[in-house]
Amino acid sequence: MQTKPIVLLTDFGWSSYVGAMKGVILSHCPHAQIIDLTHDVAPQNVREGAWFLLVNYLYFPPGSIFLAVVDPGVGTRRKALAIKTKDYYFLGPDNGLLSPAAARAGIVDTVELTVPPEASLTFHGRDVFAPAAAKLAAGLPFRELGKPVVPEVNFAFYLNGREGEVVTIDRFGNAITNIPPLPDRRKYAVSLARGGKSYFRSELPFCPAYALAPEGVLFLITGSSRTLEISVKNGSAASRLGVEVADRVAIV
Amino acid sequence: MQTKPIVLLTDFGWSSYVGAMKGVILSHCPHAQIIDLTHDVAPQNVREGAWFLLVNYLYFPPGSIFLAVVDPGVGTRRKALAIKTKDYYFLGPDNGLLSPAAARAGIVDTVELTVPPEASLTFHGRDVFAPAAAKLAAGLPFRELGKPVVPEVNFAFYLNGREGEVVTIDRFGNAITNIPPLPDRRKYAVSLARGGKSYFRSELPFCPAYALAPEGVLFLITGSSRTLEISVKNGSAASRLGVEVADRVAIV
Amino acid sequence: MQTKPIVLLTDFGWSSYVGAMKGVILSHCPHAQIIDLTHDVAPQNVREGAWFLLVNYLYFPPGSIFLAVVDPGVGTRRKALAIKTKDYYFLGPDNGLLSPAAARAGIVDTVELTVPPEASLTFHGRDVFAPAAAKLAAGLPFRELGKPVVPEVNFAFYLNGREGEVVTIDRFGNAITNIPPLPDRRKYAVSLARGGKSYFRSELPFCPAYALAPEGVLFLITGSSRTLEISVKNGSAASRLGVEVADRVAIV
Fold it and tell me: Residue C1 pLDDT more than 80?
């Protein structure tokens, strides 16, 4: 009998750390359906991980259990959380990683996971979160995972304005922002800044599809997260602009 | 009840784009068996993706559904295809990606996938191909995926001669060609060219196994696709030769 | 009916070589549960692969079948092995890759896999090990995989002293050793050497958790394998020290 999917998101790359978590899951729940959302979150970049979770959770079937580990604070007093929302479960550290997705999904209940005494101080993904996710998939009632708690760290991505940030850069060199497109706009005056200093300011055309853009020209496009991306056809906008994750973006 | 495997091939790297496609598949077909063929196709390199599909599809069980996305033309009028062959299904853009494998597998029927009105113009892997593959796995009759069509873009790899190309370079630095080995040949006169200009011409020994080659010497070997590879033991032939995918190779 | 997991470990990266192995497994055992332990073993680094297997196998459920391929000797007379231990199976080349894990797991029986006549000389992962693992998962008795044999290559990691080696470097730049921590030690005098020459010697503080370390300072920590790691908070100890896998480490 197949269980609800356990969906993994980490900053571990495709290392054996991921494999160890899968082994632990199968040891607790032999029929678990384990799916990788991504492990390519930049090391320790909680905010990038939170973005991937936020824009992708809805593509998974109701009941899915998201096990997210971007956890620079492992071994400190930061809490280990399990959040139950209307349709999903989210497990991960209390550092904001889960908060944008869980808030949008509609939080119903939150517990602090019990940390087994034999857990390491360096790898709660394997020793705390994986066993909890597996037990949940195997049928353990949510409240038996720990005791009720209020998360300490919350943040939200600002999603409705003309100012935002570069939330990730993809393999094609697209600089992906959290700014939604404006209707019927053919050009955007875009400004990029880092550390309070503007380093790029220009008017960029809008293209509906990558292939429709002229060769070699920076342009804006509505990306697959339904937010604005800065792109170059057959090239890397990110390396051309020198843009980095967390740079500020403004439509001026 | 387990379904036929859905086998993914993309140029997305191991990003959340792949994870989103898996979520969509499970949403439409909760018991889908999802297998990654590879996501390390060089960005937008349709020809490399077509090669991986061609030389690997036969290792999968009959009934397998290949979902292939290397799709620089997404959002244009290029069609979204599903091809039924004697033993397999191939879904992907009409840009040649599917054509060498599908032709060899024996095409029985081809439809143009219906594009849902809410599909993005940037990510048909998630919005068009993944739902179609999942519905097929869940039992939808092939013809209900769309209307019959004749593919527009076809290409074949030239596989029976002495001239060919570098189809991919693997992690070990082997430059893999599409030229089949000649029987009982101990040496090959090899020439490499790019943009019509020859940049390498030499006689190379043939070795049956990597470990049998002398240290530090370029040699030819019959690779795992049963075509010629240029290799160096414990080194990278590709970086030593400066060879790139799509360079022309001739046995002279 | 789901079978015992087949757990893959290779040095193939996330290339189509891995996908081909999965296709072969499904062709022989349609309901196989295939799990990736890791494919990021450095190319041809048998010792690093052996370490990953050693420190992770115990996280998998009893009955798991480990299919490990780091195989620079493919195509030579090196044997293809299947080892049965008290709770697990290990399949891979006879080059030491399996030996530390299998020895610790308690070897019960070993056979030399029969090599099918049509197997390539370059890819036994696909042509020899994958079919054998799949048949075992599908219920073939162990002894029908081949004939009894004594492995030729064995090595062990030295795990109980004050001298050891860098066994791997992770994505966060932690240099992971095989030296177990000493109890109640607050500082360690550490020396690093390569090719018999010492290139680093210093006293390093011990921290129980990454986040508790002071910024920018090299420190030691008990890592997730319960051995000592050299780390820098929010930085790469490996690039700061210029340390490489196989460098010698001594606590002096």
Answer: no
B interface toward A at CB cutoff 8 Å? 11-20, 22-24, 26-27, 30-31, 34, 43-44, 72-76, 120-123, 126
Strand partners, C80: C93
Interface test with A, best of C2, C7, C14, C60 (most A CBs within 10 A): C60
Give the best residue of C59, C65, C227 to mutate against chain A (max A CB count within 10 A): C59
DSSP code for B102: H
State residue B230 phi and psi, 5-degree precision.
-100, 125
Of residues C103, C87, C229, C212, the one with CA closest to residue C157: C103
Task: Please state, in angstroms and rounded to a whole number, the distance separating the CA atoms of residues C193 and C97.
Answer: 24
How, if at all, do strands C218-222 and C228-232 pair? Answer: antiparallel
Which pLDDT score, from 0 to 100, does residue A3 have? Answer: 79
Please check whether residues B130 and B44 belong to one and the same domain. Answer: yes
Question: How close A33 gets to chain C, by Cα (Å)?
Answer: 9
Check which CATH number belongs to the domain holding A144 and give it: 3.40.50.10790
pLDDT tens per residue, range C232-249:
998 999 999 999 999 999
0.90 cut: is pTM over it? yes
With CB atoms and an 8 Å threshold, state whether B24 touches A212: no
The partner residues of A231 in beta bridges, in order of sequence, read A219
B11 and B128 inside one domain:
yes
Segment B198-205 mean pLDDT = 96
Burial of B252 (0-12, 13-18, 19+ CB in 10 A): exposed
Inside any domain, residue A158:
no
Look at residue C206 and give its three-state secondary structure: strand
Q: Are residues C112 and C188 in the same domain?
A: no
Q: Name the percent of chain A lying above pLDDT 70.
A: 98
Nearest-by-CA chain A residue for B78? A211
The answer on C69 and C17 residing in a single domain is yes
Give the pairing type, strands A197-205 and C197-205: unpaired
pLDDT digits (tens, 9 = 90+) for C153-201: 998 887 667 899 999 999 999 999 999 988 878 999 999 999 999 999 9
Choose among A35, A36, A221: nearest Cβ to B26: A35
Structural domain tally of chain C?
A: 2
The verdict on residue C1 lying in a domain is: no
What is the arithmetic mean of pLDDT over C49-62? Answer: 98
- Does some domain include residue B157? no
CA contacts within 13 A on the Cβ side of C12: 28
Q: Do A7 and B20 touch (CB under 8 A)?
A: no
Q: Are residues B29 and B99 in the same domain?
A: yes
CB pair distance less than 8 Å for C120 and B222: yes
Answer with the one of B114, B148, B182 that is the final residue of a domain. Answer: B148
Size of interface B-C (CB pairs under 8 A): 96
| Domain range for A115 | 6-148
The beta-carbon neighbor of C44 closest among B39, B209, B234 is B234
Distance from CA of B61 to the nearest CA of C (A): 5
Phi and psi angles of residue B122, each rounded to the nearest 5 degrees, phi first: -120, -10
What is the least distance, in Å, from the CA of B171 to any CA of chain C? 7
Which domain-ending residue is among C96, C120, C148? C148
Q: Is residue C158 part of a domain?
A: no
B136 and B173, same domain (yes or no): no
pLDDT for the residue numbered A75: 92
- Res. A175 pLDDT band, cuts 50 70 90: very high
Average the pLDDT over each of A12-16, B119-123, B144-148, B180-184 and give the range with the smallest value.
B180-184
Q: Are A168 and A242 within one domain?
A: yes
| Cβ atoms A24, A130 nearer than 8 A | yes
ipTM: 0.96
With a cut of 80, say whether residue A159 has pLDDT above it: no
Q: Which helix (H) or strand (E) holds C17?
A: helix C16-28
Calculate mean pLDDT across residues B76-95.
97
